[in-house]
Amino acid sequence: MEHVTLKATARTELGKSPNRRLRTAGQIPSVAYGKGTATPLSLAVDHDALLAVLGSPKGRNSVIHLAVEGDKNYPVMVRDFAVHPISRRLLHADFLTIDENSPIEVEVPFVTTGKSKGEADGGTVLVGARRLRVRCLPAVIPAQIAADVSALGLEEGIKVKELGVPAGVEVLLPAERRIVVVKAPKSAEDKAAAPGEAPAAAADAKKGDAKKPEPAKKPDAKK
Asked: Is 26 left (phi over 0), alpha (psi -120 to 50) or beta?
């Protein structure tokens, strides 16, 4: 089963000053909670080691075995983390304990590859979502889901059910939803009509004005 191991130590001192000392020593304060933990675990993990996990292809969807010194290994995933706005160093991390034998829901990046045939005719590839929510076992979470658009012509697309996803991975979107479509270029009339009034409607309005009869003159009052 694919996972990475991250060493952790229990934090006995809490508060701003101890946390500052941890960061100076290359550690960051963190918390682990969820299944298998009666109460949240206050931990310290190596900054660079966690940064390497977050920078890997699966990023925060990586399955981590958190090896807590003097305790045991906890299968976890990164739930959240904080980054310093200037230095961009990690400040804190939350880990969620998981059951590796139970499916979970996560979001994975969605990308398209290739250049569609429709683009040569002036079309534009439109993508309905850049991240897809999927359900699967932690071990088979894909780094990304990709769709090849090379064969698509104008007004052709790819439905969710047509995506090539690994075995055991379910995309949590309606199967018939088109996730990618190659839109045809707008015609000259469409371009002229947007965003203002449609040309035909405007012309009809002008004709209507031209046909409006002049108001009848009131007869002169009898002398």
From this structure: left
